[in-house]
Design goal:
With 235 residues, the chain is mainly alpha-helical. Helix content is 40%, strand content 6%. The protein contains 7 helices and 3 strands, in the order ααααααβββα. A 3-stranded mixed sheet has the order 1-3-2, covered by helices on one side. A hairpin with a 2-residue loop joins strand 2 and strand 3. The mean pLDDT is 83.
């Protein structure tokens, strides 16, 4: 839900479950969920606390308004539509993040490579399980070879914890933070009424860099053609 914490109603995160484009999360759904738990609660008022927690979860898990209960997954390692990609490419997924129940709001969970590999092989027989060195090798190659890319992170997006933060990797690989941004807000359609100033400014910076790189490319090609012409004239 935090990934889809956009400043306007959106079906971006829930369409995969509902298959109904008309069903949307509200603007800033995390705020909407937290509002259910923002009142004064008596420490011993378990029923009201559980009801508030249910209503908070309803914002995402019952966006249709038709659910009567929440079904817990039988396989705790199942990661929905991303499971196959995780098991074959080790695409990082929050399902597998280590949690200790002290620095977060979840039950303790230790990353267990053996159990995850067992899950992947069982779920997708053609898979031999995740390649645990893939991510490390990929990011090392990115740092060495990547050029002319603008990287962005949204302060509301949990994936920012694994992002490349400002100032970036180099002059040609800058990074910007969108303070009121959820998951790739800068790549969503612009909304003049609701877009925060932080994403408006980052989009301007993205365009400035793209224009700069296009000009540099054209200048480089022009010099190359000029050099080739001079060579023919000398010959």
């Amino acid at each position: 839900m935090a990934m889809g914490n956009y400043p306007y109603p959106s079906n971006y995160l829930i369409y995969q479950q509902t298959n109904d484009a008309s069903i949307q999360l509200p603007a800033f759904p995390v705020r909407a969920a937290c509002n259910h738990m923002s009142g004064a609660f008596n420490h011993n008022d378990t029923a009201r606390l559980l009801s508030a927690l249910r209503d908070a979860g309803n914002v995402y898990y019952n966006a249709t308004g038709t659910e009567h209960c929440f079904d817990l997954p039988e396989d705790v390692n199942f990661d929905g539509i991303w499971d196959y990609q995780f098991c074959t490419e080790l695409l990082p997924q929050e399902t597998y993040f280590k949690r200790d129940g002290i620095h977060d709001m979840f039950w303790s969970f230790d990353l267990n490579h053996s159990l995850i590999t067992e899950h992947c092989v069982k779920s997708f027989p053609a898979s031999s399980g995740p390649n645990w060195s893939w991510m490390k090798d990929m990011f090392q190659e990115v740092e060495q070879k990547l050029t002319n890319v603008v990287l962005t992170n949204g302060a509301y997006d949990p994936w920012t914890a694994g992002g490349i933060l400002p100032p970036g990797l180099s002059e040609s690989v800058p990074s910007f933070m969108i303070e009121e941004g959820a998951h790739h807000l800068d790549l969503m359609f612009s909304d003049l009424e609701h877009d925060p100033i932080s994403v408006v400014n980052v989009r301007k910076m993205e365009m400035e860099y793209i224009r700069k790189w296009i000009v540099e490319k054209k200048q480089k090609e022009g010099l190359s053609r000029l050099g080739l012409r001079d060579k023919f004239e000398m010959d």
